[in-house]
Design goal:
Layout (H helix, E strand, L loop, with lengths): L17 H5 L13 H28 L5 H37 L4 H34 L1 H40 L4
């Protein structure tokens, strides 16, 4: 089996796009099997994209001196916490419940689902780095503003990594999973 890394792929491999070609993205909302549960799942994905972008923009703003450190620390604690907690919960549910439901419906895509689960392990590592540094920024904001700002500059790289990761992973996940759901009438 060929392994596809989140760091080296740019879209789904051709063999995993079989159902995507039959059910292109722009046709999904009009498909009779495009259920509220699919819309909600994709809505969660959009929330992750938005929170990632907000966090990245905030880190850029504080590093450029455009946002006050105390305001940034509060926003980072709130929105960064939402991003991390919700991502962990969401992909944990996908790995334990959602993907195992899809596999019996269409085993042709098991390798793709396994790759998405592997992405979740990489995401866990990325979120752990982000969380450690974000916690340090928030703690230092009360103790040493200069050190906190220095950490925030490094946090910019972590936030950008999350945004890039989510852009690729969530697009791949939707492009693989939604056509399976539509084709087999799952969750409708």
């Amino acid at each position: 089996m060929t392994q596809y890394s989140i760091h080296t792929r740019s879209g789904l491999p051709d063999e995993w796009q079989l159902l995507l070609r039959a059910h292109p993205r722009d046709s999904w909302p009009d498909h009779p099997n495009f259920a509220r549960s699919i819309r909600n799942w994709m809505g969660a994905h959009q929330m992750f994209r938005d929170l990632g972008a907000l966090t990245e923009d905030d880190t850029r703003s504080v590093a450029a001196g455009e946002m006050e450190l105390a305001r940034f620390a509060g926003r980072l604690s709130h929105f960064g916490g939402l991003l991390v907690a919700n991502l962990h919960g969401h992909h944990g549910w996908e790995d334990r419940s959602f993907f195992p439901e899809l596999s019996p419906a269409d085993p042709r895509f098991d390798a793709g689902l396994e790759t998405l689960e592997s992405d979740h392990l990489v995401l866990d590592e990325t979120l752990e780095r982000f969380t450690r540094r974000a916690n340090r920024v928030v703690q230092l904001a009360q103790l040493d503003e200069a050190q906190s700002l220095e950490e925030a500059r490094h946090l910019q790289d972590d936030a950008a990594a999350i945004t890039r990761f989510l852009a690729r992973h969530l697009a791949d996940e939707e492009d693989l999973v939604v056509p399976i759901l539509l084709h087999h009438g799952l969750r409708s």
